[in-house]
Specification:
about 200 residues; alpha+beta; Immunoglobulin-like; 3 domains; four-stranded antiparallel β-sheet; 3 helices; 9 strands; about 40% helix; elongated
């Protein structure tokens, strides 16, 4: 009877020792398969102004898993004269009453469109709040503005410098114990370590 319980508990321990890591590895993969990610993001840089000329760039990235069709960038103001547009894909520019729409085509997963615009007009992008009027969309969804997360940057920097500090402290502690600690203190420390065993 005791042998049967022991065998069952050993079998359970063995099976859980194998199954738990396998399930832990499989869960993120299964979640990722189940979710059809639709992530269309855009980033804006500028405007940079030199005399009356303004330059800015927009990058649109498909971080999802499916094709995003008919990418459009709605610029906050209307492009009228004296402008140059450079893109990584063919485009069409349509003019509406108060704004311009740049049509870029389809964007496959993990690809990116880069758009650079040079405008020789001092009144274009007069205020930074006009950025809020800029919209990037595909046939199915509205893109999100990819803003840097200052809190995450702080945690990354704190973690990095914390690791460096911990590493240096452990090196200095090792140097101190090896070269500067008295013989009696070393023996006491080693005896305490042996007692723990």
């Amino acid at each position: 009877m005791a042998d049967t319980k022991t065998n069952r508990s050993m079998l359970f321990a063995f099976a859980s020792g194998i199954l738990i890591p396998l399930v832990a590895v499989a869960i993120p993969y299964l979640i990722d398969l189940r979710q059809e990610s639709e992530e269309l993001i855009f980033r804006f840089e500028g405007p940079i102004e030199v005399e009356n000329t303004k330059a800015f760039s927009i990058s649109v990235r498909n971080e999802g898993k499916k094709l995003e069709e008919s990418i459009e960038i709605q610029l906050p103001d209307k492009l009228e004269e004296n402008y140059k547009i450079s893109t990584t894909s063919p485009y069409e520019l349509e003019q509406a009453k108060d704004f311009s729409v740049l049509k870029l085509g389809d964007l496959r997963p993990e690809e990116e469109f880069q758009v650079s615009i040079l405008v020789d007009d001092s009144t274009y992008f007069l205020h930074l709040y006009s950025l809020e009027k800029m919209k990037v969309r595909s046939k199915d969804q509205l893109a999100k503005l990819d803003e840097p997360n200052e809190m995450m940057e702080f945690f990354y920097m704190a973690g990095f410098w914390g690791f460096i500090l911990l590493f240096l402290l452990s090196i200095f502690a090792g140097i101190y114990q090896e070269f500067f600690e008295s013989k009696e203190a070393k023996e006491k420390r080693l005896m305490k370590e042996l007692e723990k065993l």
